[in-house]
């Protein structure tokens, strides 16, 4: 199958050729014709499978063939500012040769709302938004959805995990009855299933190994046993050994991101943190500088785990393990994208060993443990306390509650 066989017009095909897209991915082959026909869609596919192009291309095709009427016709809702900006960039790349430019706008928190109100007043056909800023615009009458023809919920599971269920329910109540609804989600917990049932009308279901760990021939997954106090030294050792031009390191908190980036910088390694406490301009510039290769190591929270496309990123390291087993796939999926291969390394200590076994169980994988000479662990393994591995039991600990409160606070700033 080719992109031409999917019914895309010559200007879009020209842009795809220039971007090096040779043939559609499975999710693109299934989704583009269905979206073009106006079907509702419920799609899940592995990270890095080309989901953004799967919905952006048919939306651009439709908007380019319809007269613009100065009001929002398509809305793409995403969970984070970074993913919103990236989606906006994809729209610009794919639509660069359209005879009449599609008026699009990205609206996110951290930017003066007056700027967004003025942009919408000038006329926007395609809007990319995060939930918080979208609701701000609706509440201040800066945006109306009565002309909306297509709604996309991208990373729907993440939208719900960040606590946006009530906001999504309020949004659904404002949609025109004939609005096409497209839901993309990497995993389908009960809340996402409920949302899909409320949102969609006779949807086409596409399920392409979503949530599954990437195959070994795409991403080499390694597990290194190391004591907590030796992780920074081991990270510096691996950087010297492999000479990766770029490396994405995941940590558990904003404080950990700041501290590890500072530690690496003091060791002469160009490193910067990325987390939700940073201002939007700083976050955008940090990510742009990393993609451009202006520094070597990006130390990030799970803010960078979803949807971000960093071309030819050779390696990812889980300095701290993800709290959610599902986020393991999203983290390591930042490498091994677009036909490239990559390596994903997880640091496992005595205290996190059982949690990593849970991650393996959830993803039906079993990875060999390694030890690096000079960094052999000395800490004793933590005894297993219950069926939840003593890591995440049914009763939430004080630390769990604090983390959830922090996640909600981060979400409110998106």
The CATH homologous superfamily of the largest domain corresponds to: P-loop containing nucleotide triphosphate hydrolases
Top-tier CATH class of the largest domain: Alpha Beta
Number of spatially distinct domains: 2
Number of strands: 14
The CATH level-2 architecture of the largest domain is identified as: 3-Layer(aba) Sandwich
User: What is the average per-residue confidence, as pLDDT, rounded to a whole number?
Assistant: 86
Backbone shape: globular
Q: Can you give a write-up of this model?
A:
With 414 residues, the protein is of the alpha/beta class. It has helices at residues 10-18, 26-36, 51-64, 81-94, 113-122, 131-139, 156-161, 165-172, 190-199, 231-242, 254-266, 280-291, 325-332, 353-363, 398-412; strands spanning 41-45, 74-77, 104-107, 126-129, 150-153, 180-184, 204-208, 219-225, 247-250, 271-274, 297-300, 315-318, 342-348, 369-370. It folds into two domains: 4-208, P-loop containing nucleotide triphosphate hydrolases (Rossmann fold); 219-412, P-loop containing nucleotide triphosphate hydrolases (Rossmann fold, 3-Layer(aba) Sandwich). The two termini are 38 Å apart. Mean pLDDT is 86; it is low at 386-395.
Supply the key terms.
Rossmann fold, 2 domains, seven-stranded parallel sheet, 414 residues, 15 helices, single chain
SSE order and pairing:
Elements: H1 10-18, H2 26-36, E1 41-45, H3 51-64, E2 74-77, H4 81-94, E3 104-107, H5 113-122, E4 126-129, H6 131-139, E5 150-153, H7 156-161, H8 165-172, E6 180-184, H9 190-199, E7 204-208, E8 219-225, H10 231-242, E9 247-250, H11 254-266, E10 271-274, H12 280-291, E11 297-300, E12 315-318, H13 325-332, E13 342-348, H14 353-363, E14 369-370, H15 398-412
Helix pairs in contact: 2-3, 3-4
């Amino acid at each position: 199958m080719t992109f031409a066989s999917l019914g895309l017009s010559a200007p879009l095909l020209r842009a795809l050729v220039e971007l090096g897209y040779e043939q559609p991915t499975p999710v693109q082959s299934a989704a583009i014709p269905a979206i073009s026909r106006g079907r509702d869609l419920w799609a899940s596919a592995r990270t890095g499978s080309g989901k953004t192009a799967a919905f952006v291309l048919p939306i651009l095709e439709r908007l380019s063939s319809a007269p613009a009427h100065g009001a929002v016709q398509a809305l793409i809702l995403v969970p984070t500012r970074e993913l919103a900006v990236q989606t906006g960039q994809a729209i610009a790349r794919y639509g660069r040769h359209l005879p009449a430019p599609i008026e699009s706008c990205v609206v996110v928190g951290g930017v003066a709302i007056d700027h967004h109100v003025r942009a919408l007043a000038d006329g926007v056909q395609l809007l990319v938004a995060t939930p918080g800023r979208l609701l701000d615009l609706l509440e201040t009458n800066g945006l109306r959805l009565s002309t909306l023809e297509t709604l996309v919920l991208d990373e729907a599971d993440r939208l719900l995990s960040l606590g946006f269920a009530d906001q999504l329910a309020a949004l659904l109540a404002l949609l025109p009855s004939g609005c096409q609804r497209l839901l993309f989600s990497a995993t389908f917990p009960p809340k996402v299933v409920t949302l899909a049932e409320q949102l969609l009308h006779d949807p086409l279901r596409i399920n392409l190994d979503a949530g599954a760990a990437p195959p070994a021939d795409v991403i080499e997954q390694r597990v290194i046993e190391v004591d907590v106090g030796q992780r920074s030294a081991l990270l510096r050792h691996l950087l010297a050994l492999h000479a990766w031009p770029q490396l994405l390191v995941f940590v558990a908190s904003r404080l950990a991101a700041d501290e590890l980036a500072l530690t690496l910088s003091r060791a002469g390694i160009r490193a910067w943190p990325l987390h939700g406490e940073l201002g939007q301009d700083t976050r955008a510039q940090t990510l742009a500088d990393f993609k451009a290769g202006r520094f070597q190591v990006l130390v990030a929270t799970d803010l960078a785990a979803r949807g971000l496309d960093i071309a030819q990123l050779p390696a990812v390291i889980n300095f701290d393990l993800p709290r959610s087993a599902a986020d393991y796939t999203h983290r390591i999926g930042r490498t091994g994208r677009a036909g490239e291969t990559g390596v994903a390394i997880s640091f496992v200590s005595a205290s996190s060993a059982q949690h990593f076994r849970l991650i393996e169980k959830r993803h039906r994988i079993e990875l060999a443990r390694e030890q690096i000479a000079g960094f052999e662990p000395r800490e004793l393994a933590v005894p297993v306390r219950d069926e939840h591995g003593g890591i995440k039991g049914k009763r939430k600990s004080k630390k769990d509650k604090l983390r959830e409160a922090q996640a909600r606070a981060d979400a409110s700033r998106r």
